[in-house]
């Protein structure tokens, strides 16, 4: 008998993957969590029926959350990651030696626990001495830490359940206040095929708060439609003004200095969404 996992990405469309083994299923205090081992993508974290990460393609998302912002800010000493309990963004953040402290605030401690157990390739840096892990509400953490961080990264699920607040204008205003005077923030902002309205709303809200706003994209095959967007808000530094030669080389699988500016070149229909 074959066992398959299907994520319904809309009412009429989904992706499916053959499963070797179901490693864990649990209803946490915040969401339905599953860790499965698939034939095509390896071990996979699923929250509320949505793929969060897989061993095979995780590097794209985690690199593209972390490196464009950190390569734009000239001295990102203090970095906050909201969400991201799998540890992938933290792993990428630590590749930048100028980062003195990386704080992870994840609301669901079970995500951290099971990621350490089943996704060591992704979560392996969560015990690094440069990292502080806090199990708490990222929304409240932002509002309790004014003028604290050089870079803030929002690695959230889609806007359902505990992540709804992380797509609100009030949250973006709180991020602005939590950043230092030359701070940068970046958030994943879903896909333009099924969530065009979300991208437009986020872009509008962030533009009302930050003087510099840029949207960029990446290809992530296990995410809805495969085409994913990220939105960056900056108080001072423009990622399009970064010189390629100033970006240091470090070990990556997707992001490169040459890709940095290229990622901000959007397909016409996506460009039209954020004009």
From TrEMBL:
GO terms for cellular component: cytosol. Keywords: Cytoplasm, Polyamine biosynthesis, Spermidine biosynthesis, Transferase. Homodimer or homotetramer. It comes from Paenibacillus lutrae. Pathway: Amine and polyamine biosynthesis; spermidine biosynthesis; spermidine from putrescine: step 1/1. This is Polyamine aminopropyltransferase. GO terms for molecular function: spermidine synthase activity. PANTHER family: SPERMIDINE SYNTHASE, SPERMIDINE/SPERMINE SYNTHASE.
């Amino acid at each position: 008998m074959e066992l398959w996992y299907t994520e319904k990405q809309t009412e009429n469309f989904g992706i499916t993957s053959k499963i070797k083994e179901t490693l864990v299923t649990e209803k946490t205090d915040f969401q339905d969590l599953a860790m499965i081992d698939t034939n095509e993508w390896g071990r996979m974290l699923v929250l509320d029926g949505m793929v969060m990460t897989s061993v095979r393609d995780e590097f794209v998302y985690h690199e593209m959350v972390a490196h464009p912002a950190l390569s734009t800010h000239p001295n990102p000493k203090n970095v906050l990651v909201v969400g991201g309990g799998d540890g992938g963004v933290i792993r990428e953040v630590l590749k930048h030696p100028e980062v003195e402290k990386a704080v992870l605030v994840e609301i669901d401690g079970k995500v951290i626990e099971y990621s350490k157990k089943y996704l060591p390739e992704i979560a392996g840096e969560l015990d690094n001495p440069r990292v502080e892990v806090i199990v708490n509400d990222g929304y409240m953490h932002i509002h309790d830490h004014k003028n604290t961080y050089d870079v803030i990264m929002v690695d959230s699920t889609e806007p359902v359940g505990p992540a709804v607040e992380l797509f609100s204008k009030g949250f973006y205003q709180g991020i602005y206040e939590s950043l230092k005077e030359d701070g940068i923030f970046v958030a994943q902002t879903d896909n333009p095929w099924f969530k065009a309205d979300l991208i437009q709303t986020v872009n509008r809200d962030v533009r009302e708060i930050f003087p510099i706003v840029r949207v960029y994209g990446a290809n992530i095959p296990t995410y809805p439609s495969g085409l994913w967007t990220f939105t960056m808000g900056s108080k001072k530094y423009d990622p399009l003004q970064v010189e390629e030669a100033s970006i240091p080389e470090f070990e990556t699988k997707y992001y490169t200095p040459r890709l940095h500016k290229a990622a901000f070149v959007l397909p016409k229909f996506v460009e039209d969404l954020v004009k």
